[in-house]
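User: Show me an example of a complex going from sequences to structure tokens.

Assistant: Sure. Here are the input components:
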Amino acid sequence: MAKVLMKGNEAIGEAAIRAGCLNYFAYPITPQSEVAEYLVKRMPEVNGVFVQGESEVAVGYMIFGAAACGERVMTTSSSPGVSLMSEAISYIAGARCPAVFVNIMRGGPGLGGILPSQGDYFQATKGGGHGDYHMLVMAPDGVQEAVEMTMQAFPLAEKYRGPVMIMGDGMIGQMMEPVEFPEDLYVAPTNKDDWATNGMDTRKSDTKNIVKSLYLDPKVLNDHNLLLKSQYDRMKKEDVRFENYNTDGDYDALIVSYGTMSRVCKTAIDEMKAQGLEIGMVRPQTLFPFPEQAIHDAASKKGCKVVVSIEMSMGQMVEDVERVVKGKVPVQWYGQCGGEIPTPEEVIEHIKSLLNS
Amino acid sequence: MAFKHVVETERCKGCGLCKDVCPKNVLEISDTVSAKGYFPIFQARPEDCIHCTLCCVMCPDVAITIIETSDETPEKAMEAN
């Protein structure tokens, strides 16, 4: 298929349809509203369903309901809306239902602002909702990757039977880039008869499937949590994704950065290379599972004096970077938030000042 | 002859690319907020527009249209006839 020029939000909507998602529930919020605006028109054309919920709380449970029935289902929102959905995300994780959540992050806390930010790292990777659960969290760095991750999110949600989150930000949602929709990323659902409450008449098995997150017996609940944990451990083995940039040769410092921020860092790295300064970067494409080994190995490389986590937040991912670098080299944070995006010049200036100090 | 910018304020996200690209510095970012929460652009100096349409081409959200307007009021036009 030829490339088309699309806005990130609209491309995410189209990618969901290409992935076989015919159920989309959402509530408008800037900078995510274009997904809903696109799908309200597009869903009827493919006999899909779009419902605008009365709030994000309601939307969360619409997702739960559709997911429990074994349907491919997605919602999109932005930071404050995802906070409202957090309860449902915990229930969905507890009930082991596959669903896709897209967070087009904006500045916080509270209502914050509407411009790009990465302040929801903790919310996405460390919970948000209650209980021992995780989501598989993917962070695209542009419209093409947002499309690919959206299409892959549905089979991944079914593989691990849990919520998967795409962490974009206002920049990814609002920018236009040429994209294509790779047809080979469509994977048909395989396992839903084993767990979904999709009716006895069409199902191949004759056991009743029950979807629930309530386990009053402590031993049963403990076993249930061990089962969830085994899925998270499996994610860490099978679905860690990252990109190395300029790490083949030696480098004086290592940047860890994701999403929009990593695009800025790539420009900064290229400019520093032209000036004769080698800086490497690891870009986590999955925030959970975190690319622990890749960052540890890159930080341990001889000659690397410092690791900098560069984020559009006040220092969230840096805690994970510190955890995985395990004291091999000093770990620093640099960033801005609330809609301010560090420029390549500011990144260069900061890296140089770190190396000179 | 003057040229009037028609901005679809619900599509404009106030990115300012049009403002940067305008050779005549016609456009400014508004200080009133749109329904989506953005500060859209507006035509601050309409008399300077030369209808080059660079802003229309640059706009990633295709939110700008330029139309020709006549300086003549209907009364003036009738007097001239």
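The lines above are the inputs; the final block is the predicted structure for all two components together. The helical segments of chain B are 17-21, 54-58, 74-80.
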